[in-house]
Each structure stands twice: as structure tokens, then as C-alpha cells.
Amino acid sequence: MANTIEVSGLRKRYGDVHAVDGVTFEVGEGEFFGILGPNGAGKTTTLEIIEGLREADGGEISVLGARPWPRNPRLLPRIGVQLQASSFFERLTAREQLRTFGSLYGVPARRADAMLETVGLDDKADVRVEKLSGGQAQRLSIACALVHDPELVFLDEPTAALDPQARRNLWDLLRGINTGGRTIVLTTHYMDEAEILCDRVAIMDAGRMLRLGPPAVLVRGLDAPARISVPSGVLPAEDARRLPGADTAADDGVSLTISTREPSAVVAAMAAKDALDGVQIHGATLEDVFLHVTGREYRA
Question: Which Pfam family is one of those matched by this entry (predicted)?
Fold first, then answer.
């Protein structure tokens, strides 16, 4: 597989702050690639350098076989960019906004109108952009990034302002775009989103890349215990701690949760005690990996 993006030793500094500190990775053609990290990790700066919006202090970058900086006019029609915060032309309707963006790339009006339906805004076509809700404005921003059918799409926290239903609908849209052969690079704070959508993810913190790989591989590499839970009262916590294979057991008054690296042994012992009513078994997730490598302290 050819690489759509190649980044080597990328650096960007603001005074004493190393926003990006020696980041290296590649994104294959047709890959859905995620960049994860806490606030201030360097995700957006990395993305903006690759997009050609910022100049790097050091390192090598190739996007679709070209250098993005200085701004490369031949590269721009081949990429689509949705920023964290988007500004629209004032006093235009959603249809006029999208047609205006499309016209910059020679996109016919009918194709721009079709994109409104694709992102679920066809019923808001004649609504001025300042009257759109936050989620609707976010979808319009994504439509503007996709209207010219780019080969490579950058999405910076695209579902941040969306409700759960809108998020799921957007996931379906992004899957369809990716299945059609487009490369997508995404930043997100939603671990479930990255786990479901991305072929590979990179976890960043303090400007450095800490983990890189397919979500399932990163989760398996964590070697975290499984968590088995039943409603409180199904089994006393003291009895749960004595079950074969149980590491710990705690009851918070709502659920009894057992931590174990031998879930089959624990479940078998619980079955023998007729204590499987309402049982739930949870393995490690990408969120566990994220917290393990970046820590649990609050980030402003």
C-alpha cells in the first residue's frame, strides 16, 4: 500500500513549549487514521502542519507525494479540511454557503446541493448559517470539506457538537467515504469513535507520539483484567473475593464488580452459585489504553 502521508521527525515550538516534539508516522492510501490525545497534546498543531496551514520548525512531510509548505496550490484541490472552529460567510443560507465553497473548486451547483442531503441538511438548505444549531453548523462544515470530492480528508474533532444520533449518522457517512477509497485523518476525544472507525490510531501527549497501531492490537497489548459485574445483592462481596480466579471485588451499592484475568473461571464459579442474574462482562477498551499512557489527571 502506498503512503498518502509521510511524517518524519516533525517539530514545532512556541517559546519554551514543544507543541510537536519529533513526531514520526505514515498514513496509507485509503486508511482511516486517528490521532488521539488530551488537551494540549499537539494533535491540532500536527494536523495543521500537515494540511499546510502552519510551517514546521523541523522534520520532513509528504502529502500525496508533495510538500504542503509553502502552500501548494496543486495540492489544495486534492485535500478537504474541516477545522475545529469554522467560520462561514455571513448572511448566506446553507445552500449558498456550500455552493460558494464548491465554486472555488469548480463544483457544479447541483453537486453542492446533493452534498447537503448527504450530511442531512437538505431541509435546512434555505436557513441562514447563523440560524443553524451547533450540530447543524458542524455538519455544514464537514460538507464544505467534502464538496469537491477530495482524495484526502482531515477532520478535527468532527462530532464534538453532535448529539448521539447525529454522531452515528456521521459515522455512517465517514465509513462510506472511506470505503469509497478516500483516506481520512481524524482527531477525536471520543475513544469509542476511534475504536469503531479507525484502522490505526496514534496516541499523543506533550507533543510526542506514545502509541501507534490498530485499536484492537493496542487494547490487547495493555493486558488489562476483565471486569465482571452483577447487580448488588446477587452475590455478597466477601463471597465474590473468594471465587477462583477473582483478583478483587467491590460493591458500590448498585453493582458488584469483580476484576479478573480468568473470566471463564469466575463465571463458572458464579454459575455454580446461581449468581449470574444480570451479569455483564467488560474487557479493556481503547479508553483504558489512553488513560494508561496519558495518565488520569485533569487537563484544562
Answer: ABC_tran
Round to whole Å and give the CA distance between 43 and 47.
Answer: 6
Instruction: Indicate if 8 and 148 belong to the same structural domain.
Output: yes
Task: Average the pLDDT over 149-164 and give the result.
Answer: 88
Rounded mean pLDDT of the chain?
92
State whether 199 and 241 are in the same domain: no
Is the peptide bond preceding residue 70 cis, with omega within 30 degrees of 0?
Answer: yes
Please, is 75 exposed, middle or buried when counting C-beta atoms within 10 Å of its C-beta (0-12, 13-18, 19+)?
middle
Report in angstroms the alpha-carbon separations of 166 from 24, 123, 128, 219, 252.
Answer: 33, 15, 20, 27, 34
Q: Sign (positive/negative) of CA torsion 90, 91, 92, 93?
A: positive
pLDDT at 162: 79
**Cα 83–73–200 angle (5° rounding)?**
45
Distances (CA, A) of 127 to 89, 122, 241: 13, 10, 60
Question: Among 201, 220, 239, where does a domain finish?
Answer: 220
Q: Do 252 and 132 belong to one domain?
A: no
- Considering the domain boundaries, does residue 295 fall inside one? no
Tell me if 211 sits within 8 A of 289, measured CB to CB: yes
CATH number at residue 260: 3.30.70
- Give the residue among 271, 234, 274 at the shortest CA–CA distance from 253: 234
**pLDDT reading at 77 higher than 80:** yes
Reference 178, options 217, 203, 151, 139; nearest CA is: 151
Burial of 187 (0-12, 13-18, 19+ CB in 10 A): buried
Number of domains present in the structure of the chain? 2
**Domain region containing 261:** 225-283
Measured CA angle at 142 (ends 136, 148), to 5 deg: 135
